[in-house]
Amino acid sequence: MAGSAARKKLGKKLEDGIVAGRIDAKSAEQNFADIHPPMGDHEALVASDRCYFCHDAPCVTACPTSIDIPLFIREISTGNTIGAAETIFEQNILGGMCARVCPTETLCEQACVRELAEGKPVKIGLLQRFATDQAMREQKQFFPRGKASGKSVAIVGAGPAGLACAHRLAMHGHQVTIFESRKKPGGLNEFGIASYKTVDDFAQHEVDYVTDIGGIDIQYGKALGGKLTLDSLRSDHDAVFLGMGLTGVNALGLKGKDPEGVEDAVDFIAKLRQAKSKTRLAIGRRIVVIGGGMTAIDAAIQAKLLGAEDVTICYRRGQENMNASPYEQELATSKGVTIRHWLQPRKIKTKAGAVSGIELEYTQLNRGKLEGTGATTTLVADQIFRAIGQSYEDTTGGTLKLNRGRIQTDADGATSLDGVWAGGDCTDSGDDLTVTAVAQGRDAAEAITIALNA
């Protein structure tokens, strides 16, 4: 009886508020297992055999890093998996992570001729992972550090753009110093992606693989602003690359201070990624996520996997306007997440200083402009996640020209200041994708090398 009473008491506790222990260790392991398990040898051969090896392949055009996809798939089909990895890494040194997190369903696989003809594309992402994983397991390095150039380059941010830039600069023999504000490298790949997409500490293994080329020093706890200024970096180095991503989080725009239970989705995702035990993470029973992008989807799914009973995403526009791909939306609903459209937050309800619900206003388009209808509905909630976008916080002293609130760059990543380049989400050409950040970091490194050799 005593044990039964204790279980009932525990059950009641887990029903109310934001608490830890909604799932046990076994459930956590199952819930956060690799969502797309890697291919085996036979499966990869069968999948690669479906490729038409198009001469003018639309999948290559659709890839932001322009990987020669037909070539690496042909190499897999002929048993040359390591050669396939080299083909991938030549264009995208973070090809392993991109194979896991790229929205291939809207990029290369959407453009695949098999998709157009049959509605079933070649599994490009999984094949890319098959090749890159084998090369990384064997610690196979394809690109040695170039002969020392005598030039040094400072990079701000150890995320995808910064790492890709650093590796390509090292290939050209330049000495690179990366200044990273956090205590760990990886940026978005380490702190901003759902745990079930990158298991087994892959982001850190990839950083090690990239930096093994040599000539790359990473200094942690160093953020641009304060003692570390753009002027000092320009003075101490021959060139500077900015790849610090987005650090600001957009507010809900409601009056008053957010009560207990309102949290930024990016912080929740980062906390989950760094947790040693997911069973210890506190989560609400009824959760509302505000937003329509990948961050909203990742936060909602993981809240559900942590044991939340009801999780609802509320987005102010229609389904077709959501930044999250149709695949990701379907993934969320398959996990039990409800997605509601044409709703915007109006007021957060509280009880005893904590969140108890949220009042939302129905929206509509009037001559192309979004507006509230005045009609409202209220959802019960004990936890609310904000996922309505991030913003660039200028820590350069106002010396760089901005466009739409981000650093303005040209096609090569050059900024308005001589000797300073930028790439990734902090720029006006960033699109919140790892693969785009990699491409921009790589291309900026080439432009920097041309400038340094001039």
Key structural traits:
five-stranded parallel β-sheet; alpha/beta; globular; 454 residues; single chain; FAD/NAD(P)-binding domain; 18 helices; Fumarate Reductase Iron-sulfur Protein, Chain B, domain 2
In the CATH scheme, the class of the largest domain would be Alpha Beta
Strand fraction equals: 15-25%
Decide which structural class fits the backbone: alpha/beta
- Please describe the biggest sheet, giving its number of strands, its sense, and whether it closes into a barrel: 5 strands, parallel
Model description:
- With 454 residues, the protein is an alpha/beta fold.
- The chain folds into three domains: 49-137, Alpha-helical ferredoxin (Fumarate Reductase Iron-sulfur Protein, Chain B, domain 2); 152-247 and 392-453, FAD/NAD(P)-binding domain, CATH 3.50.50.60; 250-388, FAD/NAD(P)-binding domain (3-Layer(bba) Sandwich).
- It contains 18 helices and 17 strands.
- It has a five-stranded parallel sheet with strand order 3-2-1-4-17, sandwiched between helices. Strands 6-13-7-8-9 form a five-stranded parallel sheet. The chain has a three-stranded antiparallel sheet with strand order 10-11-12, with no helix packed on it.
- The longest helix is centred in the C-terminal third of the chain and has 20 residues, at 434-453.
- The protein is globular, with a radius of gyration of 23 Å.
Question: How are the secondary structure elements laid out?
Answer:
Elements: H1 2-15, H2 25-31, H3 41-48, H4 58-62, H5 69-77, H6 81-91, H7 95-101, H8 108-111, H9 113-118, H10 124-137, E1 152-156, H11 160-171, E2 175-180, H12 188-191, H13 202-211, E3 216-220, H14 230-236, E4 239-242, E5 248-249, E6 262-264, H15 265-274, E7 286-290, H16 294-305, E8 310-314, H17 326-334, E9 338-340, E10 343-351, E11 354-366, E12 369-380, E13 383-386, E14 390-391, E15 402-403, E16 406-407, E17 420-422, H18 434-453
Parallel strand pairs: 1-2, 1-4, 2-3, 4-17, 6-13, 7-8, 7-13, 8-9
Antiparallel strand pairs: 5-14, 10-11, 11-12, 15-16
Helix pairs in contact: 3-5, 3-10, 5-6, 5-10, 6-10, 7-10, 11-18, 15-16, 16-17
